[in-house]
Queue: 2 jobs
Job 1
Amino acid sequence: MIEWVNENFQTNLEEYESDVLDQTLSQFYVELRKYIGDDYESDCLKVMQVSLERYLKSKAYPKSIIRDREFLSSRKVLEGKARKLREQGTGKRPNRSRSLTKEEKEVL
């Protein structure tokens, strides 16, 4: 992640215009991987977004990457990637139990 940031962020985040930051965040969310190349868990992506929001707020950035319309594209990218990862079984409870089907109940 640190290498990606060093290669793709030219200046401080708080100096980016909204449209450029939205595009950069979209690319960041798509390409984000652990050092060994594995994907992060879906919940970790949201934590990273909140951390970026907190950093920008501390630097008096005038927009919210979580709530403002200008960042809708990057939010959709993040939600899409998180959904895909959950479907692949990553997350807090990848092996959670499921309800029995009607047929399974009848067999019991």
Job 2
Amino acid sequence: MRIDEIIAARRPTFSVEFFPPKTEEAAEQLFAAARSLRELELDFASVTYGAGGSTREGTVSVTERIATETTMTPLAHLTAVDHSVAELKHVVSRLAAAGVRNLLALRGDPPGADPQAEWVAHPEGLEYASELVGLIRSMGDFSVGVAAFPERHPRSPDFDTDVEMFVRKCRAGADFAITQMFFRAEDYLRLRDRVAGRGCDVPIIAGVMPVTNARQITRIVQLSGQAFPAELAARFAQLDGDRPEDKAAVRAFGVEVATELCRTLLDEGVPGIHFITMNRSTATREVYANLATAAHAASR
């Protein structure tokens, strides 16, 4: 199904994000996670795309396996980094041939270890995600999503500019958006209000990542370019330790934080929750089970 049709027919949606594995063992872990999530009847699963297309083959193959081996609708990420227009068209055609009709159009981070390095467009490529949306639209009947940034994109000078860039992507033909991970509901709500104030009603799905170990915090900061909320970081640091019970406490707190965030967002009418799984299923299942006991989930 097209994801815009899923969102229109069923709110809130619940979905997950995977990344292409680099080894056979990691691939088995991913699909074990996918199988264990089957009982949740998730609406779709996205597959990320490495900087500069470094996981291009993996993205296509994993997306195809999700389409054929699970009941989840696949959503393939696609970035413009280091790709000519011809190469982008080739990737879109391959995904279409695999039966994929849903794409998340991203400008993407610069290739290399530093996601905050200078972004330089390919000489025969695209400069903005809005251009990628238009390219995908020109190639067939796709449902196209884009990224949204509750705390502002790290390259945007201010919130007004950030919202302007987001609305431009929507005007180019985006059907929905998925946010970068965030940890404060008020950040999402402010973004939603700013976008609505510009007359844009594209549904914005919330990206939520349950933190299950304190080391993830450093990686979150590196990936997002945003500061992790100080009060949460302090609590995770207080709980962290070398004992098994310390690790269990950190994990339990991470699930609790994600659950409360989701509850608040659902109470505020968010169109969907997109769980960033890191190719594991347990924390996502625990958060979902917690939500299922609440009144807002009982009507699904």
